[in-house]
Design brief:
By secondary structure, the protein is α+β, with helices and mostly antiparallel strands. Helices cover 34% and strands 19% of the residues.
């Protein structure tokens, strides 16, 4: 009988097993890994070990899209737009104009996949499917407005909601307030694929007919809705890297229909059945992580990386609120010991941190969070506050100060700023990391 290995000699690599007893009697490949291996794999597959290591500008950005399948869009830009921050954390010398140019060339396109997301255009035939009941209903309930919107866009080209007179109807937003019916119709047409996003000007979105925006071969490719939902489900696992089967309130599987068959969606077998199909096809591989409850799943092409994750070098990345890294908050808490809450909707007096705060990743650890603000008029980045995790001391952690300085230098370049401004209560951090001037 073999003796148990000590902690110091326990390998990081995974153990491959064949698990019998799938729903169709097939054997399924599965993986067991230590918690440390899972942490190292997670940051490495997210191109964060080291951060900003992908070189090649647009080609490097496309590499991120190819791996993740989708990058979520959010218009709030106080610290940089979410999709730009996702790419900045991974692409060396990333400039926000890169993503805009890729969109103009239609190499990426905006569609709904866990909220508004940018996806590779060549995946659109599989990514544009929707099970939305609300959008077709909204269009049907506002036929006159919907007809007018479509006629004007067909005649005049890309238009935004501001190009129409405001119309109020029965539609309300998610706060329960009455919304602009024109805007709601534009968004519904976008969800159903009739319209697409032609461009953005700040937070204003201009819509045009999909046939004027997308290559003919993309529009002509017809994929059954069930196959599209299976693809979109797989894309969530591609984005995150180690998702389980449940949600944690962050809408990880939103827009993919119910877990089980539902008479409202005839012919749709439910997410559970689609996931089972992906597992049986070998597209998803079950993972058991030491000390973690429940199975996780890794995409097939990343099993090798999971078996032998590298030791992450000392680098720092700032992670935006809609980065796939922070989708599963329970996972962050159990595997990384990091309590993540986006406090935008928390009353100011009840916030522990701030309303737009970026987690700080160092190697394979979450070591703190930062609240930056970009002031392009004055070419500055203001650090409103910094919070370090309990037990973490920046100046006593090998490699951290230099890595944080590098991260600040990269962020200043991203923000087109020349200096950092620090509040009085962060004098120690100012001494450690400088002003960037």
């Amino acid at each position: 009988m073999r003796g148990r290995r000590s902690v110091d000699t326990e390998p990081l690599g995974s153990v491959l097993q064949i698990l019998p007893g799938s729903a169709r009697g097939r054997s399924v490949l599965a993986v067991k890994v230590s918690a440390e291996a899972a942490r190292r794999f997670f940051v490495t597959r997210h191109f964060l070990a080291p951060a900003r290591s992908l070189k090649g500008g647009p080609k490097a950005a496309l590499k991120v899209f190819a791996r993740f399948g989708a990058v979520q869009v959010d218009p709030i830009a106080v610290a940089g737009r979410n999709h730009d921050l996702v790419l900045h954390a991974r692409v060396a010398g990333y400039d926000p104009g890169i993503c805009d140019r890729l969109y103009q060339r239609r190499e990426i396109f905006e569609t709904y996949n866990k909220g508004l997301s940018l996806v590779p255009t060549d995946e659109l035939p599989w990514a544009r499917g929707t099970l939305s009941l609300r959008s077709p209903k909204l269009i049907a309930e506002n036929k006159a407005v919907a007809k007018q919107v479509l006629q004007r866009i067909r005649r005049e080209g890309p238009l935004s909601s501001q190009d129409f007179e405001r119309v109020s109807g029965p539609t309300t937003d998610w706060f329960g307030a009455q919304t602009n019916t024109v805007r709601a119709v534009l968004e519904a047409y976008n969800v159903t694929g009739v319209l697409g996003l032609a461009r953005r000007e700040g937070n204003r979105r201009y819509y045009d007919l999909s046939e004027r925006l997308l290559p003919a071969e993309v529009l002509e490719r017809k994929v059954p809705v069930v196959e599209q939902m299976r693809h979109k489900l797989l894309s969530r696992y591609r984005s995150h890297g180690l998702l389980g089967i449940g949600g944690d309130g962050s809408g990880t599987f939103g827009g993919l229909g119910p877990a089980m068959p539902d008479p409202r969606f005839p012919g749709f077998p439910g997410r559970t059945a689609l996931r089972k199909q992906l597992i049986e096809a070998g597209e998803l591989v079950p993972v058991e992580i030491e000390g973690q409850r429940g199975k996780r799943y890794v995409v097939r092409d990343e099993v090798g990386l999971l078996e032998a994750p590298s030791d992450p070098p000392p680098s720092v990345a700032f992670i935006p609120p809609f980065d796939a890294v922070v989708w599963d908050r329970k996972f962050l808490g159990s595997l990384f010991g990091f309590d993540y809450v986006w406090e935008l909707f928390v009353p100011p007096e009840k916030r522990r941190w701030g309303w737009y705060v970026l987690p700080i990743v160092f190697g394979d650890r979450f070591v703190g969070r930062i609240e930056p603000r970009i002031d392009q008029d004055n070419a500055t980045v203001s650090v409103l506050d910094l919070w370090w995790e309990k037990g973490f001391t920046p100046g006593r952690t090998e490699g951290f100060v230099d890595a944080m300085r590098d991260a600040f230098g990269a962020y200043l370049g991203f923000a087109r700023a020349t200096r950092l401004e620090w509040p009085p209560h962060l004098k120690a951090e100012k001494r450690l990391f400088g002003t960037g001037a």
